Amino acid sequence: MIYKFTEVLNDLVNYFILGDILLLESWKRANNLSDDLATEFTTNESGDRAFSEGIVIPMSGIENYPYTVLFNLSGDKPELCKGESRLQFRRSGYSLKVDNNMLMLFTWHILKQFTPEKVKTLISYYRQNKKPIVELANGWYHIEILGGETLQDGDYEPTFEFVIQPIENEEKAANADMNLSFEIISSAY
């Protein structure tokens, strides 16, 4: 199955974050971090630990475009590798843990006031407005991230595709480099 989301915006900050947002919230509490998780992540090692422990994958270099986002659970060839798509990068070696039956692509702004109430409100908003959130069984997943452009209504649009595969026997994979840029060069902008 492939889930498609359109007009996904970065909220004017050059970051997307992929993960189980409720797991991140419980991880924040377990590590006694403040509700200003943005400051925590930029002033100490907590962001690096969240990444290395498979809680989130931070994606920097996100330009201010409307994106098409694909969550690909099909096991087939990625959409960005088919037909007239324009693949710009393909990065593997990431893993994420899902504890709350969901995987979500969210923006940096939620981290500034990362309270249980704000997180629940954001999840509700995502579900009601068809934003990038999918239901997954709990467990560990290999994540491959592809970026480029896909044809959408006759025009090329910047696209991220997340190829998601469950990891057998709950073996966690080592996460790749978190300092890579995920910038897509758009021919449309």
Describe the fold and architecture.
This protein has helices at residues 21-30, 37-43, 46-52, 116-128, and strands at residues 2-8, 15-19, 56-60, 67-72, 86-98, 102-107, 133-135, 139-152, 155-166. It has 189 residues and is α+β, with helices and mostly antiparallel strands. The protein has one domain. The chain has a five-stranded mixed β-sheet, with no helix packed on it. β8 (139-152) and β9 (155-166) form a beta hairpin. The radius of gyration is 16 Å and the shape is globular. The model has no long low-confidence stretch (mean pLDDT 91).
List the helices and strands and how they pair.
Elements: E1 2-8, E2 15-19, H1 21-30, H2 37-43, H3 46-52, E3 56-60, E4 67-72, E5 86-98, E6 102-107, H4 116-128, E7 133-135, E8 139-152, E9 155-166
Parallel strand pairs: 4-9
Antiparallel strand pairs: 1-4, 2-3, 2-6, 5-8, 6-7, 8-9
**Overall tally of structural domains:** 1
Q: What is the typical, i.e. mean, pLDDT?
A: 91
Total beta strand runs = 9
Percent range of helical residues: 10-25%
For the largest beta sheet, what order do the strands appear in spatially? 1-4-9-8-5
- Uncertain stretches: none
How far apart the termini lie comes to 30 Å
Let me know the largest β-sheet.
5 strands, mixed
Backbone structural class: alpha+beta
Secondary-structure element string: EEHHHEEEEHEEE
Give descriptors for this structure.
five-stranded mixed sheet, four-stranded antiparallel sheet, 9 strands, 189 residues, single chain, alpha+beta, globular
